[in-house]
UniProtKB/TrEMBL annotation:
The organism of origin for this protein: Coemansia biformis
InterPro entries recorded: Ig_TMM62
Domain of life of the source: Eukaryota
Positions of transmembrane segments: 126-146, 219-245, 251-270
Region (Disordered): 43-62
Name the record gives this protein: TMEM62 Ig-like domain-containing protein
Entry keyword set: Membrane, Transmembrane, Transmembrane helix
All residue ranges annotated as the TMEM62 Ig-like domain in the record: 3-103
Pfam families listed in its UniProt record: Ig_TMM62
């Protein structure tokens, strides 16, 4: 019950089961199987229902299935139960396995909630889809839309603004070189050198240069508008349309989008289409 996936497993079918099924592998024949639920002995004994199959090469495949009748309605109270199975072989060796049991329709809390437990409790496919869509929208807004809006709001025109940015770039470059000389040939103590100011100045210069390049690119119509159309097309139009499932006949024709497949009048979202 700790590893149930409510969105992917038919949890309701547990209420219609009539047997507890156990696969038991041992080095020696099984002598006894004891079942307890919440510390109380199970009233019905376990019975061996396994089988062995052999192929032409003489290899034997064994299915060590043991079953015990039960009534799941007795434990359908929304609480967590513990199913314990103890197996003893003819050599006297014994092993007990405990399994959490619940009919609440969801997974029981995990002790490692910060790692695997968090993954088990959430729909990772939906998280991936949302993350990819948000990332695409943010990247498109920053790299395509924002430079164009910034260009449209320039009061003095793009040419004058680019000249001002070029002058600022030369000042930033000179400042970075001065700081680099102090870092490379300054004090013998590394912590006394202006490493952080150098990093801040370099990041400022790179950010300002990248902004100037993006705005300049957005001011060129024959570069900006095809890129804008491509960005919008990837978000709204199919990447391709074709016969995805040949054996399905006309129903096998579908379209693949950046975030899902439209096939046979049904939409199938994808988690990793990127």
């Amino acid at each position: 019950a700790r590893y149930l996936l409510p969105r992917h497993e038919p949890l309701g079918s547990m209420r219609t089961t009539t047997f507890i099924r156990m696969l038991i592998w041992t080095d020696q024949p099984v002598a006894r199987v004891d079942i307890e639920i919440d510390g109380s002995p199970h009233p019905h004994p376990a019975v061996y229902r396994g089988k062995e199959t052999s192929n032409d090469a003489g290899d034997t495949t064994k299915t060590p299935l043991w079953v015990a009748p039960w009534d799941p309605a007795e434990y359908d109270d929304g609480a967590a139960h513990v199913l314990a199975v103890t197996v003893i072989d003819t050599g006297g060796k014994s092993t007990t396995v405990q399994t959490p049991l619940s009919f609440a329709g969801g997974a029981l809390p995990l002790h490692n909630g910060a790692t695997g437990g968090w993954i088990m409790r959430h729909d990772i496919a939906a998280i991936f889809r949302a993350a990819s869509i948000i990332t695409y929208l943010v990247a498109g807004a920053l790299l395509v839309v924002a430079p164009r809006v910034y260009y449209a709001l320039l009061p003095a025109g793009c040419a004058q603004w680019l000249l001002e940015q070029a002058a600022l770039h030369r000042q930033d470059r000179t400042h970075v070189r001065q700081l680099w000389d102090q870092v490379a040939h300054g004090s013998d103590h590394v912590w006394a050198r202006p490493v952080l100011p150098l990093a801040a100045a370099a990041c400022k210069m790179l950010a300002r240069t990248q902004r100037a390049r993006q705005v300049h690119w957005a001011s060129i119509p024959w570069l900006f508008w095809p890129a804008y159309a491509l960005t919008m097309g990837l978000a709204t139009l199919p990447l391709f349309t074709g016969w995805l499932i040949p054996s399905a006949g006309p129903l096998g024709v579908g379209s693949l989008y950046a975030y899902g497949i439209y096939l046979a009048a049904e939409w199938v979202p994808l988690a990793d289409s990127w």
